[in-house]
TrEMBL record:
InterPro entries: Big_14 (IPR046878), Lamin_tail_dom_sf (IPR036415). This is Bacterial Ig-like domain-containing protein. The lineage of its organism: Bacteria, Bacillati, Bacillota, Clostridia, Eubacteriales. Residues 218-310 form the Bacterial Ig-like domain. It comes from the Bacteria. It holds the Pfam family Big_14.
Length: 313
């Protein structure tokens, strides 16, 4: 377990270094909103894990039952067996348009590739969606891009989910609502709203004298959030997010796991109004629709959220 934790630490540091080089964004090959060419066929690939850094990667298995996602780390002593099992599957290419058939329950696995990116696999009813992240920029100006391929091959994913998980007393398993944490969720949400995570709590526009007075969105780069504090208390600004209204419900959008959060060490002082800029590179093309930006504020270990709606036309 100690070795696994050290391995996670090394990988996390590597990702921080990569992002520090200047990630400029991530996108999907295809049409707007991540919608791919339905007639496009895959490359002549025979191995779902081609280019995987099998000896040095850290993998996670995920299972989404339609309501919640369970994540399990792969047992390091069994990892190679799992990779070989998947790599040896006899796969046949399918038209990418059939990605719309992927529903729940589904299984997924994440593997680091040899380009400091990820290979994301999602399995449903004999279909494998393979998503890859690669650097299409330079070493000095990194830019990540997503590509997707669809294949056919049967697999007993529930058996693998139990067989290859860590089983010691410190095994880490996580359960979260919705399917936004699943591999390839950025694409899958565009075809099946079931993969979104619904926001159940009501988020006010003002609390404790704090509100978002204006939002200015540059879809290619950043969002500028003007925060107003009419009170006398200073608040720390923690995480932020963009949520979308889908089928009359607010949902949490999937984000790119390669992105390092930039909302650190910021504050809004009492009786003050200030604009804060955040990179939106953790999201894919937001597309048209109704959105809201949510800002988390904190004081004395007490957190709360405020939101402001905006439209993209």
């Amino acid at each position: 377990m100690k070795l696994l934790k050290e391995k996670r630490k090394i990988i996390s540091m590597a990702m921080i270094v990569i992002c520090a080089l200047g990630i400029t964004g991530c996108g999907t090959k295809g049409d707007n909103k991540g919608v791919i060419d339905p007639e496009k066929m895959n490359k002549e690939r025979t191995n779902l894990l081609e280019n995987a850094d099998i000896d040095n990667c850290l993998s996670r298995m995920l299972y989404y039952d339609g309501e919640k996602t369970e994540m399990r780390y792969v047992d390091v002593d069994k990892a190679k067996e799992l990779y070989e099992e998947i790599a040896n599957l006899k796969i046949k290419p399918l038209p990418l348009g059939r990605v719309s058939e992927i529903k729940t329950p589904c299984f997924g696995i994440e593997v680091k590739n040899d380009k400091y990116g990820e290979i994301e696999l999602t399995y449903y009813d004999g279909m494998w969606l393979r998503g890859t992240v690669k650097n299409v920029g330079t070493e000095e100006h990194v830019k990540f891009e997503h590509e997707y391929e669809l294949y056919e091959a049967d697999y007993d994913y529930m058996s693998a989910f139990d067989k290859y998980k860590m089983v010691d007393d410190e095994a880490e398993e996580y359960i979260s609502k919705g399917g936004v944490g699943m591999p390839n969720a950025m694409l899958l949400c565009n075809y099946n709203a079931k993969f979104y995570r619904e926001v159940e709590e009501v988020i006010p526009s003002e609390k404790g004298g704090v509100s978002i007075s204006d939002v200015d969105l540059n879809k290619d780069d950043e969002i500028a959030i003007k925060i107003k504090n009419d009170g006398n208390v200073d608040y720390n600004l923690l995480g932020w997010s963009i949520q979308k209204k889908v089928e009359d419900k607010w949902v949490i959008l999937p984000t790119d796991g390669m992105f390092i959060e930039d909302a650190v060490g910021r504050s809004i002082f009492g009786s003050n109004e200030e604009t804060f800029k955040y990179s939106i590179r953790k999201y894919e093309d937001l597309g048209t629709g109704k959105y809201r930006v949510v800002q988390v504020c904190s004081v004395n270990s007490q957190d709360f959220e405020v939101a402001r709606e905006f439209d993209i036309k």
